[in-house]
Amino acid sequence: MTLPNYFYGGPPKAGSSWIYTLLSTHPDVFVPDGKYVQFFTDFYDRGIDWYAQCYAGARVDQVARCDLTTDYLFVPEAAERLARHVPDARVFFSLRNPAERDWSAYQHLLRTGQAHGPLEQEADTAHRLLSTCSAYSDAIERSWRLFGKENTHILWFEDIRSQPQAAADSLFDFLGVVRREIPQADTGAKNVARAARNTRLNGVLKQGAVALRAAGLSTVLGKLKSNPLLDKVLFSADRVPKLRDQPEAWNFLADRHTGEIDRLETLLGRDLTAWRARP
């Protein structure tokens, strides 16, 4: 039975798409089509054999088999399940200013119809994409406890943006694969959030994506995601509002994460003063 040995433990909206592109094109790395697998959170009842089938296409020489699902370590039950089935897992995180990450997550939930109200209302009631996935320190300590500090690696979103090759080399080293030069077109976390043309349609297609994964059709999902015509149908040219242009939202999110930033700064020994900045 072939299972993954490396797992993305970080949150969504923090560079995971860049990581997927980086790893899915590396010859020594296997990543299932469609980016997410969601076994330990959403499809655990399908059994470990179903999960193994997602990795049946991995070649023997692909030494790193990755599951890039974005919330395993933020869901205690999912993390325990992961440790039970893959006790020697190695976990890597990409961390982004939690205020900026939450704003990006909120905009995503709005355009896919998973959130409808103001930010203050949705912050604790919406999908865990927004409500729990900025509790970085909890997730990191969970990884240290279950898999060991030496098997946990931290990337930083701002490094992906400013020093993408160095960030890539750091991840390649952790995965134990040869370093590769990043193509110029893929040198940073550049995905620009755009407004949905039709929120209801986006929501229906989001549900369809979950159904495709459940049916084992992640390859089909991957092709749909990369289809430029579908992209044109779903999204307008308008960009979603930037957090820096929304001072009330920025202050709300900054206040919300003050304690988390303090705790993370102590936990990882990194100066996070820039994360405390406000407009």
From TrEMBL:
Family annotation (InterPro entries): NST/OST (IPR037359), P-loop_NTPase (IPR027417), Sulfotransferase_dom (IPR000863)
Record key words, sorted: Glycoprotein, Transferase
Source species, domain of life: Bacteria
Family matches, as SUPFAM superfamilies: P-loop containing nucleoside triphosphate hydrolases
Gene3D superfamilies: P-loop containing nucleotide triphosphate hydrolases
Sulfotransferase domain boundaries: 10-178
UniProt-recorded name of the protein: Sulfotransferase domain-containing protein
